[in-house]
Design a protein that fits this description.
The complex is a heterodimer. By secondary structure, chain A is mostly helical. In chain A, 76% of the residues lie in helices and 0% in strands. Chain A is built from twelve helices and no strands. Chain A has helices spanning 3-7, 11-36, 52-58, 61-93, 100-112, 115-129, 135-159, 163-171, 176-205, 210-213, 221-229, 235-259. The longest helix of chain A has 33 residues, at 61-93. Chain A is globular, with a radius of gyration of 23 Å. In chain A, 43% of the residues are buried. By secondary structure, chain B is mainly alpha-helical. Chain B has a single domain, classed as MetI-like (MetI-like fold, Orthogonal Bundle). Chain B contains 13 helices and two strands; from the N terminus they run αββαααααααααααα. Chain B has helices at 4-33, 51-58, 60-93, 96-111, 114-125, 130-137, 151-175, 179-187, 192-203, 205-221, 224-230, 237-243, 248-275, and strands at 35-38, 42-48. In chain B, helix 3 (60-93) packs parallel to helix 7 and helix 7 (151-175) runs antiparallel to helix 10 (205-221). The longest helix of chain B has 34 residues, at 60-93. Classes of the chains: A mainly alpha, B mainly alpha. At the A-B interface, helix 1, helix 2, helix 4, helix 5 and helix 6 of A face helix 1, helix 3, helix 4, helix 5 and helix 6 of B.
Chain lengths: 265, 276
């Protein structure tokens, strides 16, 4: 008995594992197939191929404005979360404040709270304060649900950092901010990109908070798909979903190529 | 060196945003949950009662929904654990060249929009969906089997949504098991199954617990998938909250369950860490 065969996973295990991986891709494949199918329901094999549903989506003002709104929210909230989150994480990392453990838990709390509860709480709060339907209200709601990801990845990247490098820059005459911008920031950048990506995806994905706070003209893409499904399966939903699948796949591959995204998950 | 004042200036903006748009709104929900509702007139000023909370325990429908939610939480967690372990083991201990592609295939559905994934399951599970069509074409069934708007649909959909989280937690846990200990047990004559049961499984237990807690809490809090696959008729706690936002007592009940489970598990983990 050699060491090699002892460590190699057996056939049964490998087969089970690959079945699970296939199960994970199953709905993705089905959505893509449905998007190109001429029938409104799916058959095996597909009845015919068409690009008509994509044309329908890309010329539909409802879809286009929902996509625009989703991107505005995702970009805006990620940007705000990055600035606020990295600043806060840096302060926590330098340990100049008391009770940093409790503060960190507070910053992570929106992750523990069921999203639908955050949505209900903000609905009541925004109705009272008149923020309901305002863009700034929506943006800040998305900051609440995305900032924990930025803080977490910033703290993780900072914890691997040697403070002496930044001190050296200070000794050589850099101001505190210069030392951070020129030394620390480039070192934690890959972790921050991962955190920003999570933040972006979380915002782009969100229904439970967004759906309570938007006005009719502010519908986002996931909210639109979520509500349209109650009317039945429409192949244009499959087409817009396929576009999202494509975008997600490209972003994941690029992120993996650039800086080994799988290490940050 | 950074002064305390500078640190405060850096952290204050985020603390203010979270206080104003998270803490205060959630706390303001608390008085509402003790409010008294009159059909037609709404919330009655000045009056308060425990009725909203007692109703959760006494009302048959609420009780059914809560048990259903917990039942889904337990069964989804269990099946995720069973399905994830072989895959996580293959990623952690299998051939090096498979590792990154497999991890990417696990991350990909996780990053994909939740509504898209749930939509995919509708296309699969509906009466005229792929699975029913296929089974009817093959002659296995004569009429469509109901796979949506019931436990089966939610169980399949939620398992798919939260499986990747479990896999990633288990990969980290299995990678933390020292290989030397496994080899030592094998050298001393343990069978592969015995090495697994006596070494790998117990040593990855903290990861199993962490992954299970995560999947359980995510499952009982989920809104989008239960709503899309369960419709307005097959309710869980989160969809009930969605349909009736003013019923904030249920919001606190759900939050309490999530927080209690996380708190309990962190206590357990600390005790385990103390024993090791």
């Amino acid at each position: 008995m050699s060491d090699m065969s002892e460590n190699r996973p057996g056939w049964g295990l490998t087969a089970t594992a690959f079945t699970v991986v296939a199960f994970l891709q199953l709905p993705v494949i089905v959505v893509v197939l449905a998007a190109f199918s001429t029938t409104s329901y799916l058959t095996i094999p597909p009845q015919g191929l068409t690009l008509a549903w994509f044309g329908k989506v890309l010329s539909d003002p409802t879809y286009l404005s929902a996509i625009r709104m989703s991107l505005i929210l995702a970009c805006g909230s990620t940007l705000i979360s990055l600035v606020l989150g990295v600043a806060a994480a840096y302060a926590l990392f330098r340990k100049v404040l008391p009770g940093s453990e409790a503060v960190t838990s507070f910053l992570m709390a929106p992750l523990v709270m069921p999203a639908v509860v955050v949505g209900v709480a903000l609905l009541q709060f925004y109705s009272m304060t008149g923020l309901r339907g305002s863009l700034i209200g929506l943006l800040l709601a998305h900051v609440v649900i995305t900032v924990p990801y930025v803080v977490r990845s910033a703290l993780a990247s900072l914890s691997g950092l040697d403070l002496a490098v930044e001190e050296a820059a200070r000794v050589l005459g850099a101001s505190g901010f210069e030392a951070f911008r020129l030394v620390t920031l480039p070192l934690i950048a890959p972790g921050l990109v991962a955190g920003a990506l999570f933040s972006f995806i979380t915002s782009l994905d969100n229904v439970p908070v967004t759906i309570f706070l938007i006005s009719a003209s502010q519908t986002t893409l996931p909210v639109l798909i979520f509500s349209s499904v109650e009317m039945g399966i429409d192949p244009s939903v499959a087409a817009v979903s396929t576009l999202l699948i494509l975008a997600t796949g490209i972003v994941l591959l690029l992120a993996e190529r650039r800086f080994g995204f799988h290490r940050f998950v | 060196m950074m002064s305390r004042r500078q640190g405060l200036l850096l952290i204050a903006p985020l603390l203010l945003v979270l206080a104003g748009f998270f803490l205060v709104p959630v706390l303001m929900l608390l008085p509402t949950s003790f409010g008294v509702y009159e059909p037609g007139t709404g919330l009655i000023k000045g009056a308060w009662s425990l009725k909203n909370y007692s109703q959760i325990v006494s009302d048959d429908y609420y009780r059914e929904v809560i048990w259903r939610t917990l039942g889904l939480g337990f069964s989804v967690t269990l099946i995720c654990l069973l399905l994830s372990y072989p895959l996580a083991y293959l990623i952690a201990r299998g051939p090096e060249r498979w590792r990154v592609p497999l991890i990417l295939l696990v991350i990909f559905p996780m990053l994909l929009n939740l509504v898209v994934r749930s939509f995919g399951w509708i296309a699969l599970l509906a009466n005229r969906g792929l699975i029913n069509n296929l089974l009817m074409q093959l002659g296995v069934i004569g009429a469509p089997v109901k796979l949506l708007f019931n436990f089966v649909g939610l169980f399949i959909g939620l398992t798919h949504i939260y499986l990747p989280f479990m896999v990633l937690m288990l990969v980290a846990a299995i990678r933390n098991v020292p290989r030397d200990v496994e080899s030592a047990a094998a050298t001393l004559g343990s069978s592969r199954a015995h090495v697994f049961m006596a070494v790998t499984l117990p040593l990855s237990a903290p990861g199993i617990l962490a992954g299970s807690i995560l999947v359980f809490v995510l499952t009982i809090s989920a809104l989008v998938t239960p709503r899309m696959l369960g419709g307005p008729t097959y309710q869980v706690m989160a969809t009930l909250i969605y349909d009736w936002p003013s019923g904030s007592a249920l919001s606190f009940a759900l939050t309490f369950m999530a927080v209690a489970i996380i708190w309990l598990s962190s206590r357990l983990t600390k005790r385990w860490a103390g024993m090791a």
